[in-house]
Specification:
By secondary structure, the protein is α/β, with parallel strands linked by helices. 38% of the residues lie in helices and 12% in strands. It has 15 helices and eleven strands. Bound molecules: glutamine (GLN).
Amino acid sequence: MLPYKNFKEKLEKIKKGEVSLKENVSFFLNEIEKNKHLNAFNFVFADDALNQAVKIEEKINSGKHGKLAGLVVAVKDVLSIQGKPLTCSSNILRDFKALYNATAIQRLLDEDIIIIGKTNCDEFAMGSSNESSAFGSVLNPVDNTRVPGGSSGGSAAAVAAGLCDAALGTDTGGSIRQPASFCGIYGLKPTYSRVSRYGLSAYASSFDTIGPFANNTEDIAAVLEVMAGWDANDSTSSKSAVPDLSGNLSMNGKKLRIGFAREYFGDGLSTEVKKAITGVMDKLKTSGFEIEEISLPHSEYTIAAYYILTTAEASSNLARYDGARYGYRSDNSSSLLEMYKSSRSEGFGSEVKRRIMLGTYVLSAGYYDAYYRKAQKVRRFIKNDFDEAFKKVDIILTPTSPSPAFKLGEKTSDPLEMYLMDIYTTSANLAGIPGISIPAAKSSEGLPIGLQLLANQFNESDLLKMSYYIQHNIL
Ligand code: GLN
């Protein structure tokens, strides 16, 4: 067990000499070694991390350190760290090294974090179980026969197993919140455009977001506020000011209004998850919160719209992996066209291929109007539903996932069943709003159950306040 409960406390203890950063990094490296069977990491940077620990401890001792000095972070292997491998857990990028730092990474490094390694994930972040990785599946630390969720399964497992202080993931349709819920930790997806996507390997550019995993709301807020904010290198990044998130976690008596959307509690939701989430709602009521019923009438179309739009974007984004410019090139070809074909056929895994084909289909002449354009319209309806809801409430409370973590291999033969795992998370990406998953309860089998909070665009502040309140007063 760690001798501190959150990052702030750790920094204080380092300052007082009660915790040595080098020993702390060694402890994590040791834990990573002991938990190798989880397969959470694609790469571990032991020497770099130890060297950084010495340098940063000196900075802390001289009082000239960054805000996150000594925070030990694991990074999903879809984000660029200069000079380090960037594989997206795909054979097509198996030997590729990043040429520059992603903006989110650079901002964290500027505040003196220590990067301990790169974490396993579904190939190109496409999946809900981490089983589509070319580096193999990740095991759920709570129950090794189960998946950790996906696509950021390695990051969630690393935090849950105590292999680092925090981790970065990406969320295009739930890939931070769902694994956080399966592993029993906190995971936040920011508003679309809040965190620069520069240096993130694109899956679906109008959905992709970068966010943190941690053991508590305090650490989530501390990491998010450093990464967030406008960036000249990402033309879609927002200029909206980033408030002091970590310094304002208390509600100070203001009671946020909570919304209950019936559409998120219908068929397909496990009774145990339903009971856990409504149990939290009852406790909130007893604590004086008003819970108002709201409606998100287009919820039933979220999965369809999400998988049409994201596969369309993926088919375009992944066209760059052609054997000529990046990564793997097949030797089995005698013409340029054949080289493209065999590099892609051999380099990509089956889920990625399925999505490229689906995306190409929905964008093709004759089908564009029937699928792609229609899905764009549905996306607007879903966004409008949230706009209406947030006129009445500040926060919407839902389950994160319809069930706790499922068994490894249980859903790999049926893509649709796997896609349905994203039923409560994809709407936030369609609407561009922020969401967080909180470890709310345990099932009868001891599996974590996650609760999701959603807020209006750029309202991470209320989202974190509510999360902090629930963490300290309800759970
Ligand atoms: N599970 C979803 C999918 O497969 C979400 C992935 C993500 O958020 N990167 O697309």
